[in-house]
Amino acid sequence: MKKILITCFEPFGGEKINPSEEAVGKVSAPRGCELKKLRLPVRWGEAQKSLFDAIDAFLPDAVLMTGQAGGSSAIRIERVAMNLCGAIKDENGLYATGGTEEAELPIREGAPAAYFSTLDCKKIQNALKAEDIPAVLSYSAGTYICNYIMFSALDRFACENRKISAGFIHLPYANCRKDGAPSMELDVMTRALEIALAQIILGEKL
Amino acid sequence: MKKILITCFEPFGGEKINPSEEAVGKVSAPRGCELKKLRLPVRWGEAQKSLFDAIDAFLPDAVLMTGQAGGSSAIRIERVAMNLCGAIKDENGLYATGGTEEAELPIREGAPAAYFSTLDCKKIQNALKAEDIPAVLSYSAGTYICNYIMFSALDRFACENRKISAGFIHLPYANCRKDGAPSMELDVMTRALEIALAQIILGEKL
Amino acid sequence: MKKILITCFEPFGGEKINPSEEAVGKVSAPRGCELKKLRLPVRWGEAQKSLFDAIDAFLPDAVLMTGQAGGSSAIRIERVAMNLCGAIKDENGLYATGGTEEAELPIREGAPAAYFSTLDCKKIQNALKAEDIPAVLSYSAGTYICNYIMFSALDRFACENRKISAGFIHLPYANCRKDGAPSMELDVMTRALEIALAQIILGEKL
Amino acid sequence: MKKILITCFEPFGGEKINPSEEAVGKVSAPRGCELKKLRLPVRWGEAQKSLFDAIDAFLPDAVLMTGQAGGSSAIRIERVAMNLCGAIKDENGLYATGGTEEAELPIREGAPAAYFSTLDCKKIQNALKAEDIPAVLSYSAGTYICNYIMFSALDRFACENRKISAGFIHLPYANCRKDGAPSMELDVMTRALEIALAQIILGEKL
To answer: Which of B19, D6, D94, D201 has its CA 20 to 30 A from that of B205?
Structure first.
């Protein structure tokens, strides 16, 4: 029985829903998997603490993180996370410094510039495409909380030398929008996450 | 009391819903307006007959036709309809000839090449933009049943010299899609149609 | 020997060149064709006068008009011209009224709403695609001088009941731009016009 | 007098020119700068060797690498290079393994996952925007030879603990194309590189 922690985010930026929360809420645990679902806040610091607490309590074998990529029209499987908090205000109205003065800074001073996902991203992409779900490999998870969380998990597992596979999947909007932006059926995204979980159970990369 | 006929289409091309049917279904008649709703088939010939029958029975002062513009991310207010049935198979699998051999033909042999919408498209666009609803003027309603219906109504009113204002509004998808295409909130589109109706009541162009 | 008048436009809107002028300048007359080249001003009124004067002097069997479609990444073969001067200031800084007050008006009061191109647009598109040149059929030539000129020619030939085939082809930018917009090789566009001319000689639609 | 090595690439993928070669060829050395220009092959292994040889011979204070980002409509200033040779055949028809069997592999086994550019990318972007040149920060330099060269330089300077600032700038196409893809004026791109060089001379980040 493999223990997998799957995370999503709360709505942010004025959105009423976050596709990651909707899809994760509907995901069924594949056979052979004990699944723990966790909703993270879109706040520097707090998001990381919440993630780390859940890892300590649940002791997962793998962590699949998910988030919203507004404007994307495909599932994005992130291959790499950077050691960078962009100059973006979080839901508390604060930069990663905890202050209101615009600033960009490393996620962890002294940590490597980046980590690769330890999921088999290509295998997940192929499995999605086999079911005609639009899916791309992405080489940048952005500079906001999604990248922050992905980097934080990979950095911690690397530092502690723990064999926990971890990676991130970005989802398009799950709701029709006033501005006519691209969106994707929630059922398709839910299915995409179940396909990814099934691939993780089959044998992660690490 | 102004009588307005508002039309929409059935789902087509394998879609489960048609945004025009969804939005028209939810539209409330603005004050001073008796509203008649009509769903048209996506079939050459039948769509026109159904429209003409409703016009004969209801005797509207204005006709607002609506349809789906898949892939669009804004409300499209059509300014002109062409005398052309494109070489496109309808839901019966037939071309406008009624046959299966690829063919393009005029909607009515001997009719003018085109008619302008007799709605005040610019005023409707301005009213939509005043409520931050993405709206563009369009100078081509395509070559399928939407253009066919718009042309048919305008042609008939011109031939009979009847002062009935008529025009067409294209709507983006109303549902999230597997392919991540643009879509728009149903409530926004419903509101857009109510705004258009209110403008039509205020005084049409003709 | 078929006489064909081919027209292009001067640069406008601050551009240094107009792709239509560049391409028409390089076009060679296909065999069996006497070709007359004409550069038109981007000015309401003057453009039409210049076109009509050339038609009177040259007495062509066919007229191929060309212009710039900034932002397009394909050759656009226009199927229809509308009886509409959009509310756009020309190179003299004037609207189609000849004044500076924003106004939209018909090209010719009392004329039909539109004319179809009397070239065989589909045949031209197929001939272009056969040489791997990106080409689309377009159902709107816009509301500026290109549409104005196309309508003017078709309207005049219809009024005078003259069997002169006429149509319009829009071209992408021919130069690399500061804003990184799409553009197309001049040689490809020149070739495209020669292919169109060859199709016109073979036998026009009318 | 600061010594700067500026590199570009040969044309590849069937292209007749490479915008980086064209722009670098025209770049003038800003005042206070000794500029060395180097054209690199689009071949795994050889590109790196050629770069390293030039660094050894010239002993630059800074290295500005440039390449082609086909399809982009803006100057892209790369912030990060990954330790990854994508599964892409080079101009010799070989993968980074030197063989023909599809494979993805690290640029240097055991090296960090990524390095950040040691140029002040934000300052360069601001300087470009001050002259209305479209410029974006990019967080992925792709997985081909551009990323390979950027990573190789940064990795070597880090390993040898040398204070040589280095970074990469991607350029749009410099020629109009048959497929109507975005492109940018060569003079604008040449100017962009001179602006970047001036910023590097003013004081690099490191």
So the answer is: B19
Total count of domains within chain D: 1
CB-nearest to D182 from C133, C181, C186 is: C181
**Residue D67: CATH number of its domain:** 3.40.630.20
Residue B86 lies in a domain: yes
Shortest distance, CA C116 to any CA of chain B (angstroms): 6
C73, two tokens: 């990444």
Residue D15, Cβ neighbours under 10 Å: how many?
A: 15
Tell me: pLDDT of A205 over 70.
no
pLDDT at residue C204, as a whole number:
47
Range of the structural domain that residue D184 is part of: 2-201
On the CB side of A108, CA atoms within 13 Å amount to 19
Residue C205 pLDDT more than 50? no
State the DSSP H helix or E strand holding residue B75, giving kind and residue range, or none if neither: strand B75-78
Distances (CA, A) of B104 to A25, A136, B146, D88, D106: 49, 39, 15, 45, 56
Distance of CA C46 to the CA centre of its chain: 15
pLDDT value of position C32: 86
Site of tokens 């391409």: C23
Instruction: Kindly state whether residue D206 falls inside one of the protein's structural domains.
Output: no
Task: List the single residue in D with minimal CA-CA distance to A141.
Answer: D139
Of B22, B85, B170, B194, which is the active-site residue? Answer: B170
pLDDT digits (tens, 9 = 90+) for D25-77: 999 999 889 999 999 999 999 999 999 999 999 999 999 999 999 999 999 99
C179 with D72: Cβ contact below 8 A: no
Cβ distance B178 to A186 less than 8 Å, yes or no, reads no
Q: Which residues of A are catalytic?
A: 78, 146, 170
- Helix axis angle, B19-26 to B186-202, nearest 10°: 60
Residue C114: which residues within 8 A CB-CB, separation 6 or more? B80, B82, B112, B113, B114, C80, C81, C82, C83, C151
Closest in B132, B133, B183 to A176, CB measured: B183
Confidence of residue B32 (pLDDT cuts 50, 70, 90): confident
pLDDT bracket for residue A204 (50, 70, 90):
very low
D-contacting chains (≥3 CB pairs under 8 Å): A, C
* Contact of chains C and A by CB distance (3 or more pairs under 8 angstroms): no
Of A113, A138, A143, the CB nearest to D114: A113
Whether residues C134 and D178 touch (CB distance < 8 A) is answered with yes
C206 domain-assigned: no
Residue C162 lies in a domain: yes
Which tens digits make up the pLDDT trace of B115-153?
999 999 999 999 999 999 999 999 999 999 999 999 999
pLDDT over threshold 90, residue B1: no
Residues from chain D that touch C188, judged by Cβ atoms under 8 A, are 178
Q: Which residues of D touch C134 (CB under 8 A)?
A: 178-180
A9: its two tokens: 């985010």
Nearest to B149 by CA among B89, B83, B197: B83
pTM (2 d.p.): 0.88
Chains in contact with chain A (at least 3 beta-carbon pairs closer than 8 A):
B, D
Enumerate neighbours of C (3 or more CB pairs within 8 A): B, D
Contact between A133 and B74 using a beta-carbon 8 Å cutoff: no
Distance CA C194, CA D75 (A): 35
From B21, B78, B91, B194, active-site residue: B78
Q: Is residue C15 flagged as an active site residue?
A: no
B40 beta partners: B9
Q: Which amino acid is at A85?
A: C
D184-201 confidence digits (pLDDT tens): 999 999 999 999 999 999
Evaluate whether B179 touches B74 at the Cβ level (below 8 Å). Answer: no
Cβ contact A177–B183 (<8 Å): yes
